[in-house]
Amino acid sequence: MTEKSVKAGEIIARMDRIPIWSLSYIFIGILGMGFLFTFFDIFDINVSFIQTALTIFHVSSPSSPEIGVLLGPAVLLNLIGYIVGSLLLSPLSDRIGRRNMLMITMAITGLGSLYNALSNDYLNFVSARIATGVGVGADLAIVNTYIGEVAPLNGRAKYTSFVFLFSTLGAGLGLWLGLLLTTPPAPFPLGLPFALGGSGFLAVNGWRVMYGIGALLALIGLVLRFNLPESPRWLISRGRIGEAEAVVRYMEERASRKLKNLPPLPTVISPYVVERLTYLESLRAVIADRRYAKRLAVLIPMWFFGYMTVYVLAAGLTTVLASLGYPPPEAGIIASFGDIGFILCALTIMFVGDRLERSRWTVISVAFTILGGVIIALAKTNLPLSFIGSSILFYGFNLWVPVSYAWSAESFPTRARATGFALTDGLGHIGGGIGTVVVASVVASLVAGGVTSGLAIEVFLLIASFQLISAIIAVTLGHKTANKRLDEISP
């Protein structure tokens, strides 16, 4: 064991003994701004796409099943971009650093959103969605990798969810701005009485304004990220011991001001140090090693089937409800109330997420998804009950996500952590694209036969069935990582 290796192990041990968040909380806000934008981009299409389809795709009616058919490829191609960005760009952070790639990915995402705002036909619209997806896919992988590497070992799910809380704000902003800017005014709760999308400039351009706002949010996130420190674990994995020690010393000083005395050092685990690592070597590190290959074999299908449910509801709930006969403003209002559950799921994981093994949250999550969908289906014209159902639905299909972000990041070694996360989350997103296309086609065919009282229940059970498969995979085959040291889980 070399002197450099011993020193690196001591620095990681010093970092692992810190039981609290020891960087500035401003850095969580900086990372959170990126999440706010990326989820604004995911959810802004939910309500606004109906206006987009009417104005530049020349769809005849806001309740036309054709809108769902057009939405499917748009979401699928966005997710293909996500997969490309996740698999090709995020692994670069294993080579050039987390901070540098976080700035590059946010720039790509903002430019994609600006392209969306300027598009004038379906081809350019979906091309812009692909470009935005490239940035979003890489960004989410690197943010979760970064958080996992700097958070205390007993709080990785907590602080991942803390950042995820900003995504709930972005989702809510996307949903409610969609109602404000792209729907006509209607008496609440059938719509917003003060909605601006019924006349004038916003009647045909409200959706453009939304994507313009997205580009502005990305610019703000990019500027703020200049202040982020590099991950000490990544610095150590590249042999940059002095720089890593400076960051850890700063963390110790901040923690000492709060705790006075830090816990004793844990056992020193010598880290794997490689000063140069190619993309192929990163791939080999997580595919050729049987331990990590087995984890890939569990996490990829877990994400694949889980995202089938997530993206149908996140990007298409308004369209699904409109296809089932709900007036579009009412459908948008029901979907927008779901953000209450979205926020509650982030708060739940912040406070109790690290108390259970990661896989158990998938079971709890799918139970709430089924419950919420059934309540919406049974509520029919009872809007208060529909709002409750939407909140429970969003709580359910999102509850497992921040925990599984932490789980994926924990499951691979520092030298290839972003690569491993990219493979699980990126390939898993293929399911999200397939789910939107499949469900849109099934709903269109079912609606063509006439909307019956039991149709809505069938549709929501179909959507939840994919997440149920995901939960079964996680619980029966998943590995344990909660409250363990990263270098113990993934050496």
TrEMBL record:
CDD domains (UniProt xref): MFS_SV2_like
UniProt keyword list: Membrane, Transmembrane, Transmembrane helix, Transport
A GO term, aspect molecular function: transmembrane transporter activity
Transport found in the keyword field: yes
Pfam families associated with the record: Sugar_tr (PF00083)
Residue intervals passing through the bilayer: 20-40, 67-89, 101-118, 130-147, 159-181, 209-228, 296-326, 332-352, 361-379, 385-407, 427-449, 455-477
Location relative to the cell: Membrane
Topology of the protein relative to the lipid bilayer: Multi-pass membrane protein
Domain Major facilitator superfamily (MFS) profile: 27-482
Domain of life of the native organism: Archaea
Entry GO terms, CC: membrane
Cited Gene3D superfamilies: MFS general substrate transporter like domains
Protein name: MFS transporter
Phylogenetic placement of the source organism: Archaea, Thermoproteota, Thermoprotei, Sulfolobales, Sulfolobaceae
